Amino acid sequence: MEDTKKPAAAAQARGGRRLPKPISFNRLKSSSVMVLRLSSQRVSCYEIASPNYAGKPSVPVLWDKELKTVVNNESSEIIWMFNTEFNDIAANPGLNLYPVQLRASIDDINELIYDAINNGVYKCGFAKKQGPYDEAVTRLYEALDKCEEILGKQRYICGNQLTEADIRLFVTLIRFDEVYAVHFKCNKLLREYPNLFNYTLFNYTKDIYQIPGISSTVSMEHITKHYCGSHPFISPYGIIPAGPNIDYNAHGL
């Protein structure tokens, strides 16, 4: 599916609400399920699906072009769906990121990754008092320390096979030094972790980034502009900090 479906960035309108632009679909061959290309315009896919929709639009969205409705907007469930439900049109149908024999360990580490790392950086950034920030940042770095220890013994977070858990962890790690270190006050850098970053044999974050098809899903320019322009209560002027401009295609320092 890598060649038939490309991820779409979600730009945002002033005030923080994410709105779609001319709705543009990327065709998934014979499938009726599409990925919406979101940006700034006034009509959202949620409003198309339900004209009276009054909730907060969110992405990602899995969209059915035939029924013109949202199939799912929960990222964890969309991951599972893409892992199994589109194998008949997938370029690599044999790839299984949630193998039966590893599901228990994947589920276990996913709880830690989601609560303490994926969501943890937001808890740090959105904290309005010192106490909640201290609690969140302590939990975040304890979780990163645990992942660092695991990756000192094996290539991937659940063994020697790439799994869903690695993808969940990667999406936060790839943003960490570029955005979260400054914007969300998570200022112990990923680069200070030899196993999580790239100084050891497997070059974890860089290794995943260099898997064919992964780098094309990462637009660091969009990531930095999005975060710095999305949260006026954190960055009222939307200034984009310079650097660090990490070369994820390189190994070593």
Explain how this protein is built:
There is one protein chain. The chain is mostly helical and 253 residues long. The protein has 2 domains: 95 residues, no CATH class; 131 residues, Glutathione S-transferase Yfyf (Class Pi), Chain A, domain 2 (Up-down Bundle), CATH 1.20.1050.10. Helix content is 38%, strand content 6%. The chain has a 4-stranded antiparallel β-sheet. Helix 3 packs antiparallel against helix 5, helix 4 packs antiparallel against helix 5 and helix 6 packs across helix 8.
List the secondary-structure elements in sequence, H or E: EEHEEHHHHHHH
CATH architecture label of the largest domain: Up-down Bundle
The fraction of residues assigned to DSSP E strands is 5-15%
Distance from first to last alpha carbon: 33 Å
Going across the major beta sheet, what is the strand order?
Answer: 1-2-3-4
| Alpha-carbon Rg, integer | 19 Å
Question: Based on CA inertia axes, which overall geometry fits?
Answer: globular
From the 3D structure, determine the CATH topology of the largest domain.
Glutathione S-transferase Yfyf (Class Pi), Chain A, domain 2
Task: Give the helix tally.
Answer: 8
User: Average pLDDT value?
Assistant: 82
| Low-pLDDT windows of residues | 6-31, 37-42
Task: Specify the biggest β-sheet.
Answer: 4 strands, antiparallel
Total beta strands: 4
The count of domains is 2
What is the CATH class of the largest domain? Mainly Alpha
Helix content: 25-40%
Structural class: mainly alpha
- Oligomer type: single chain
Protein name: Glutathionyl-hydroquinone reductase YqjG-like isoform X1
GO molecular function: glutathione transferase activity
Organism: Panicum miliaceum (Proso millet)
Domain GST C-terminal: 99-196
